[in-house]
Specification:
436 residues; alpha/beta; Aspartate Aminotransferase, domain 1; Aspartate Aminotransferase, domain 2; 2 domains; 7-stranded mixed beta sheet; globular; binds 4'-deoxy-4'-aminopyridoxal-5'-phosphate
């Protein structure tokens, strides 16, 4: 595909040409390709604190944060030290090691419903394994998910998915057998009546409901008050498990993730984590009730494994990141996200651009439409062309936003007043560009 925009990122463009020859689309994860916003994806060469620098030497305030992990900012000194120290002792043993225990203890200590965890290498593996475990525990085949929620590229969870599937406007993924899609029941989010109807019809076949603890992959769409409690009530009534996916929200929305933030007295049976807990390395986890986790191999019959699971360098990065996520970090995330979300709303209002800023704790997103967004139909009803103009004006001004109208903006504790001011300065002109 040719670039629709004249381009002033020659080094990135040259790298993209090389990448396209050897990698489909030139990228290793689709949203990175800038398909919905056009233009040349920037190849980054370094990151420090709140900034990224691209191959052309241009610096950006980063509001993607590697899609969530970089809660302390890039190249945090303590994380780098831990990584160097761990790597100097060897990078993978294929045996248990103490760093895994430290990270697991940290997760279990923070998130009460999680009595045990198993470490994996990506959020996709975490949700895939949690679903296998739920099916093994209940002996039932069906999985309920919500439209617009993204749980990684697990076959059965790619139905009506958010994130890149939404960005590329794909109906679903090709390559997922119809039988597999048929085992996934897709419901509208925040709709208790639809949930009750699905369970009334097929409740004895449903292994679990998997939900983003608060949706972040169709933009920020928090659960309505009482929705999480309804999930707990209905699943319990029918003997199904509740799987709360905190890959994005975990350790970001509070020290104990969305679960800690919402404090609605709702304990899921299983939870999944990733992103922040890997500190920028491939580490993720699923965990929950002891009696459910006991079914995993080697103690039980549900198989699950990984050559690099619990990798000593990744777990050192993750553990050190979590240990540095203190109250001051969460306070700064809240402050920066409030300032940026409010300023974006103000600039778009001044330019007369329909918009709606929504928040999931310190995650937030800007929908280019009026009115509340409660589900995927609402999220899709927005002016993505206006977002594209806004995105490119911000990029030109040195602000790296998620290249999709369906993604949250992520801030870090390293976003100091200088970085915040650069974003604030860029917003009014970008809002005028969005107005067209
Ligand atoms: N679940 C959620 C809620 C996510 O946001 C993501 C990634 N954006 C995943 C699962 C998949 O994680 P990964 O990309 O590490 O496979």
């Amino acid at each position: 595909p040719s670039d629709p925009r004249p381009d002033d990122a020659p080094a990135s463009a040259a790298l993209l040409a090389r990448a396209r020859a050897v990698t489909p689309g030139g990228v290793n994860s689709p949203v990175r390709a800038f398909r919905s916003v056009g233009g040349t994806p920037r190849f980054m060469v370094s990151g420090r604190g709140p900034y990224l620098t691209d191959a052309d030497g241009r610096e950006y305030v980063d509001l993607v944060g590697s899609w969530g992990p970089m809660i302390l900012g890039h190249a945090h000194p303590a994380v780098l030290d831990a990584v160097h120290e761990a790597a100097s002792r060897g990078t993978s043993f294929g045996t248990p090691s103490e760093n895994e225990v430290l990270l697991a203890e940290e997760i279990v200590a923070r998130v009460e419903p999680v009595q045990q965890v198993r470490l994996v290498s990506s959020g996709t593996e975490a949700t895939m394994s949690a679903i296998r475990l739920a099916r093994g525990f209940t002996g039932r085949p069906l999985v309920v998910k919500f439209a617009g929620h993204y749980h990684g590229h697990v076959d059965s969870l790619l139905v009506a998915a958010g994130s890149g599937v939404a960005t590329l406007a794909l109906p679903d993924s090709s390559g997922v057998p119809a039988q597999m899609a048929a085992e996934t029941v897709v419901l509208p989010y925040n709709d208790v009546a639809a949930l009750e109807a699905a369970f009334a019809a097929r409740g004895d076949q449903i292994a679990c409901v998997i939900t983003e603890a608060a949706a972040g992959n169709m933009g920020a769409v928090p659960p309505d008050p009482g929705f999480t409690a309804a999930l707990r009530r209905v699943t319990a009534e029918h003997g199904a498990l509740l799987v709360s996916d905190e890959v994005m929200t975990g350790f970001r929305c509070s020290p104990a993730g969305w679960w800690g933030h919402e404090r609605a007295g709702v304990d899921p049976d299983l939870m999944t984590f990733g992103k922040v807990m890997g500190g920028g390395f491939p580490a993720a986890a699923f965990g929950g009730r002891c009696d459910v986790m006991a079914l995993l191999a080697p103690d039980g019959p549900v198989y699950q494994a990984g050559t690099l699971s619990g990798n000593p360098v990744a777990t050192a990065a993750g553990y050190t990141t979590l240990r540095h996520c203190d109250d001051a970090v969460y306070a700064r995330l809240a402050e920066v996200s409030r300032a940026l979300g409010d300023a974006a709303a103000e600039a778009l209002s001044a330019a007369g651009v329909p918009h709606r800023v929504q928040r999931v704790s310190s995650m937030f997103s800007v929908f280019f439409r009026d009115g509340e967004v409660r589900d995927y139909d609402d999220a899709r009803d927005q002016d993505t062309a206006a977002f594209g103009r806004f995105f490119h004006a911000m990029l030109d001004a040195g602000v790296y936003l998620p290249p999709s109208a369906y993604e949250c903006w992520f801030v870090s504790a390293a976003h100091d007043d200088t970085a915040v001011q650069r974003v604030l300065d860029a917003l009014p002109a970008a809002a005028r560009a969005a107005a067209g």
